[in-house]
Amino acid sequence: MNLKDKKAADTRQRFITAARELFLEQGFGRTSMNQVAQRAGGSRANLYLHFRNKPDLMLALMQEVEPGIRAPIREVFDLPEYTMESILGWLADMATLWREHSVEFSSIEQAMAEDAAVADEWLQMMRRLSSSIPELEDNEERRYQFIISLMSLDRNFYFLYVHNQDTNEELVHRSLARQWLTVFEL
């Protein structure tokens, strides 16, 4: 990479970092491109050379987040056995991940509600994740059950840990565990 390309990559990353900070502080909807440019110490013109709009920034953030969520989700296939208790243990780990990243997940949710491209990328991320798991390669029905179970986990954990829904967490986890057990029955 030559010096010009490195400088452009560094500038792009500064914009992504600034957007992440602002999305976490004030949410996706209340963050403007002007604020991102100011936080990054750049100009709006330079920001628009790298990103067309806020959804483009969110897509870049999602691409950065994807590897970090892939491993914890993948761990369900590394369990020594597939029982209610083992799946509940994995779900407890996933709940910790959701609690730690609830603000980021809330920003992604806001962006998905505002922009179809962000929602499409979220679905593509689910599909890429399922395609990367060898245990799902030869069983299309199992792969779909995995995606559906992952979407159910996402929705339920969003309401539990982002919106702090007043519900019985243990029963939600047990219901999700029963759903996840079907992935391993196919």
From TrEMBL:
This is Putative transcription regulator. Residues 9-69 form the HTH tetR-type domain. GO terms for molecular function: DNA-binding transcription factor activity; transcription cis-regulatory region binding. Residues 32-51 bind DNA. Keywords: DNA-binding, Transcription, Transcription regulation. It comes from Corynebacterium efficiens (strain DSM 44549 / YS-314 / AJ 12310 / JCM 11189 / NBRC 100395). It holds the Pfam family TetR_N.
